[in-house]
Amino acid sequence: MEIKKYQVFSPDTKCSVENCERNADYEVYLYDYYAPPLNEEFIEQDYTCPFICEIHMNENEVKSLGEKKPRRIVTYPYTNQHMAQGYTKYLPVSEAYSEIFNEGLIVNNPQLRIDFTDINKELIRYIARNPEIMREINPRKFEELVAELFNNKGYQVELTPRTRDGGKDIYAIRKDSIGTTLYVVEAKRYSENNKVGVEIVRGLYGVKSAERANVGVIVTTSSFTQDAIEFASPLKYELSLNDYTDLKKWLIEYK
Ligand SMILES: [Zn+2]
Questions:
Q1: pLDDT digits over 114-141, tens only?
Q2: What is the DSSP string of 97-158?
């Protein structure tokens, strides 16, 4: 596949983010595709930010908004400034330009492969090292992160729009030989001192009952008030409260 490029890389190419003096770690691409039956892929070097350092790459992903699905638009702080359809992918420059990094070695047809860095994995490792970043990311992004953590634990996950506040509920389904369990999960990206109160827990319990789900799960970047904990404690098979410490453990367990 011929990839359209706007800027060539040399060993002293810097990150394209304004005023960033760091070396480029990744080449950046705009990627899009038509879902089956077309199965057509589009890929070109990112016009506004062809190269990026590790730190800005992580920031770019953490602050991205939108769904990485065919023909959708994802917004980023640094890449895809013209809001083209598609989303950003990264390839380490050492792989994209292996002929430069492996001087003297014979490189057979260094054609760009499209098995890019798995950004989910990279990003979650980054968050695991810097868990406090979870308190700064967009609440929508935090919902996606929680959904991904459940997905990684082997649950079937669905993010569905909640009508009133524009937030999303996460439905996680676990199937095994004994049966199927439905979890309705609510993610609360709160600052450290803003504890999740009993009204939120009671609200989720109501949703769980109305939806005929088996367990209501709250996941937060803060902790729970005493009232909330007391409300949930006799309902331990129906409610599961998970705080910042639990989240940090899940991030470390991420495979
Ligand atoms: Zn940078």
A1: 445 556 777 888 899 999 989 988 888 8
A2: THHHHTTTS--S--PPPS----HHHHHHHHHHHSGGGGGTS-HHHHHHHHHHHHHHTT-EEE
User: What percent of the chain is modeled with pLDDT above 70?
Assistant: 90
- What structural domains and CATH numbers belong to the chain? 26-117 (no CATH), 139-253 (3.40.1350.10)
Q: Please tell me the distance between residue 7's alpha carbon and the centre of ligand 1 in angstroms.
A: 16
CA of 60 to the centre of ligand 1 (A): 10
CA–CA separation, 118 vs 48, rounded Å?
22
pLDDT tens, 203-228?
A: 999 999 988 999 999 999 999 999 99
Task: Please say if the pLDDT value at position 105 is more than 50.
Answer: no
CA of 21 to the centre of ligand 1 (A): 7
Q: How many CA atoms lie within 13 A of 215 on its CB side?
A: 17
Q: Examine residue 131 and say whether the peptide bond preceding it is cis (omega within 30 degrees of 0).
A: no
What is the distance in A from the centroid of ligand 1 to the CA of 52? Answer: 5
Per-residue pLDDT, 112: 43
CA of residue 75 to ligand 1 center, whole Å: 18
Burial of 10 (0-12, 13-18, 19+ CB in 10 A): exposed
Question: Lowest-confidence range among 23-32, 164-173, 210-219, 238-247?
Answer: 164-173
Tokens linked to 158: 């669905």
